[in-house]
Amino acid sequence: MEKLKVGILGATGMVGQRFATLLENHPWFELTCLAASPRSKGKTYEEAVGDKWKLDIPMPESVKKMVVKDVSDIESVKEGLDFVFSAVDMKKEEILAIEEAYAKAELPVVSNNSAHRWTEDVPMVVPEINPEHYEIIERQRKRLGTKKGFIAVKPNCSIQSYTPAFAAWKEFEPYQAVISTYQAISGAGKNFETWPEMVGNIIPYIGGEEEKSEKEPLRVLGTLTEKGIALKEDLVISAQCIRVPVLNGHTATVSVSFRKKPTREELISALRNYKGLPQERNLPSAPKQFIQYLEEDNRPSVLEDVNFEKGMGISIGRLREDHLFDYKFVGLSHNTLRGAAGGGVLSAEMLVELGYIKK
Which of 33, 116, 157, 241 is catalytic? Predict the structure, then answer.
């Protein structure tokens, strides 16, 4: 197939940088436009990023000399593009406005930002869990008055460490869970050079994160109805979120109770056998094994498991009975791959596969 031409909004930040690396040699997508704040306009990408390249892999040669456009100059940015990824770093109101403006300019927007996650007709999707929620795009297009343009978002990076397990265990009806997430510093767009006070430190607060961790899974696991997306009301989550001195990888410790009482073996089997539409359609960024279960007591560990399936798979271990709840376990996901840019690329592939993004 002829490659779709794509741009990155917010290309100079950490998630934008990750998008740039993931789109190098992508079989379906060709990166042809980089956009960022006005201060980057007219500079090459290499000049605009300067010494703020935050990834542990080098900047792709293909983007170094690409001239950065002003993200607010929509007419210039949209020229020749089929869709855009959004990773802009702005105030919520500004993100809401600019993503909707791009959608109204007939460009599909696949967003990594949280601003539109609770807009009623904007789908918030983990492609393996709830791709049917994309059907609400038709309602959004009617509201926006567009034929092609729309906004689709992916959920918060930290919920990827445990929400897939709840999806795999749907038949056993999980109804309450207590969760603690131990989140990497790259989730804040930082590395140890730019955040040296995190070395040997833990911060027991991440602004807005606990509410996202408690509420967003209920929308992802919810049901598409004639009125919209109904939240999964029969699941209650209590969360605490902690920043830890790890570069990449969000870990979650979870205790969960079920209405139908499964055995440990049934739960492990459900994890290992769980797959979604990305696996069935063999999408380019889809992990072959979405969830791996590890038997060792010291797994999953960040050093050994964060890059499972090129960072797109979920690792779970230490499943055992709990004295207060039914079971407890530990989950791990890569926050800038599965949780951010990689999840965005997989979402775009799913939207192309389902016919929402076209050449």
Answer: 157
Taking the mean position of all CA atoms in its chain, how far away is CA 356? 19
| pLDDT, tens digit (0-9, with 9 covering 90-100), for 146-175 | 999 999 999 999 999 999 999 999 999 999
The hierarchical CATH code for the domain 158-334 is 3.30.360.10
Closest alpha carbon to 36 in 75, 96, 77, 6: 77
The pLDDT tens digits of the residues spanning 203-262 come to 999 999 999 999 999 999 999 998 899 999 999 999 999 999 999 999 999 999 999 999
Residue pair 216/156 in contact by the 8 Å Cβ criterion = yes
Residue 224 Cα to chain centre, angstroms: 20
pLDDT beneath 70, residues of the chain: none
Q: Catalytic: which of 33, 116, 241, 250? A: 250
pLDDT at position 93: 97
CATH of domain 4-156+341-353: 3.40.50.720
The structural domains of the chain, with segments of one domain joined by +, span 4-156+341-353, 158-334
Which residues lie closer than 8 Å to 137 by C-beta, 6 or more apart?
121, 123, 150, 152, 356
Cα(197)–Cα(181) distance, integer angstroms: 20
Catalytic-residue membership of 26: no
